[in-house]
Amino acid sequence: MAIALFSTGIDGYVLAGLLPTIADDLTVTEAVAGQLVSVFALTSALAGPVLGAVTGGWERRLTISSALAVFVLGNLVTAVAPGFAVAMAGRVIAALGGCLLSASINAYVIHRTPVHQRGRALSFVLGGWMTATALGVPVGLVLGQTNWRFPLLMVSAVGAVALIGIWWRLPTMHLPASTLADRLRPLRNPRLAAGLGVTTGILCASYTCFTFAVLILGPVLTTDWAIVVVMFGYGLASMLGNAVTGRLADRFNPVRILTIWLIGLLVNAVIGSLSLALAGGIALTVLSLMWFGLAGVGNGGAAVPQQARLAAMAPDSAPVVMALNGSAIALGTALGGGLGGLVLAGGTSPQGLLHVAAGLLVLTLGVHVGVVLSGPRPVTADRSR
Q: Is residue 317 within 8 Å of residue 186, measured between CB atoms?
């Protein structure tokens, strides 16, 4: 399952590093090419709950395998696309498989893991996704220097390997079937809905910048190989953040960990926006890379405590909540890429996207504080954790 998410992680990140090449090949602007990332995420957000309900009565190994097969097919369509419209269609197909895959894997892990080990279990599985940013994306970018389509073929190959392994080794599991109304019912809880909004806010702020990171870091990425190295560093930073919070979420209150991480993301965005606007020369290079690396730590580390917090808010509906969280992640990714594209199309410089991200994080932190204050007061046992 980690390998399966590894393939989705490559798919989610590698195109952002190849926007100029994709735009040239498909004869569109870079802002429009960035919507290949956004349409994948938007489709995932909208289709996730529906597909989850439709497949609710399926055996879980079959569900995971089918979703992965559709994901592989979509990437193959994009890889051979003769034009932008077909490429977009391929992204939609891949998203239909990818959103169901992620939700099904998270639900599988939660059901088979004791509560006190969920943080590490989710961290391990999500580690496949994070590892993709450190290893898969640089390899994909190297291949993409020759042709941007090659990384998608690599994603398809990795996904096919995971598909064989899942069908061969994954134990079967049956979960109670649920309707679309059942899956959306947790949204009637305003506090839980707001908690999911925190997920969307984090991802929106992240992808407002990450989708166009090659453009933001353009002044310091003077060669194609520099892009590969920087993306490799971002991936390592994401893995570090994921590993650290995976351990901390099992030992301490996940809400406290998430609060610290959100404040850190906001401070990094503010300092980064000022640095890129005022610095020059070597200082600009150093400060730009520091901002990007710390953003990797923050974005990679926020996922586990947020998932643990959401699962604790609705323990009897944890699999459904994880599916909704997957949609919230996808929605944030889509909104971030779309917002970033609109800001760039309006004439703002790529570096100006950091100001937008900082504003989004202020709003997200405010929603997070509201969720915390509206919840039950922690008892002594919780404080000791």
A: yes
Query: Domain 2-384 sits in which CATH superfamily?
Result: MFS general substrate transporter like domains (1.20.1250.20)
Alpha-carbon span 259 to 263, nearest angstrom: 6
Residue (of 136, 170, 180, 103) closest to 7 by Cα position = 136
Tens digits of pLDDT across the chain (385 residues): 878 887 887 776 678 778 888 999 999 988 888 888 888 888 888 887 788 778 877 888 899 999 999 999 999 999 999 999 999 999 999 999 988 887 788 778 777 777 666 666 666 666 666 566 556 667 777 777 778 898 899 889 989 999 999 888 888 877 666 667 777 787 788 899 999 999 999 999 998 998 888 888 877 777 667 777 887 788 788 878 877 877 776 677 888 889 999 999 999 999 999 988 887 778 888 888 899 889 988 888 888 888 888 878 877 776 678 778 878 887 888 888 889 988 998 888 888 999 999 999 999 999 999 988 887 664 444 444 4
**Do 365 and 260 touch, CB atoms closer than 8 A?**
no
CA separation for the pair 288, 221 (Å, rounded): 10
Segments making up each domain of the chain, as ranges = 2-384
Q: Model pTM?
A: 0.75
CA-nearest of 217, 229, 16, 254 to 122 is 254
